[in-house]
Specification:
Order of helices and strands: HHH
Distance between the termini: 85 Å
Helix content: over 70%
Mean pLDDT: 90
Largest sheet: none
Shape: rod-shaped
Low-confidence stretches: none
Number of helices: 3
Radius of gyration: 29 Å
Strand content: under 5%
Length: 95
């Protein structure tokens, strides 16, 4: 797939000319391609997939870090509440 065709399809999509973009894509994918073009497309798909997975994993790691921080905050609050409860129970039993 040539860059010009790709840019044309991208331009059509940006202009919200979806029917025209659909036709251009259908024409593009229905034409025979050489082994070289097929190989290039496989490489591009793999690169896109790897980038997607990298982004997904980074987002997952950030979300997990945030969740662990929140759990740490909850644990700290629980410990403080239990310590306060223990102090109140000791105070009540000494009275």
């Amino acid at each position: 797939m040539s860059n010009t065709v790709t840019q044309d399809v991208k331009a059509l999509l940006e202009q919200e000319k979806f029917d025209e973009a659909k036709v251009a894509i259908q024409e593009l994918v229905s034409r025979p391609i050489s082994d070289k073009e097929q190989g290039e497309q496989v490489v591009k798909m793999l690169v896109a997939y790897m980038q997607y997975m990298t982004d997904l994993n980074e987002e997952y790691a950030e979300t997990l870090d945030e969740a662990m921080k929140l759990l740490g905050d909850i644990d700290k609050q629980e410990s403080e509440a239990m310590a306060e409860l223990d102090r109140e129970e000791k105070k009540a039993s000494n009275s």
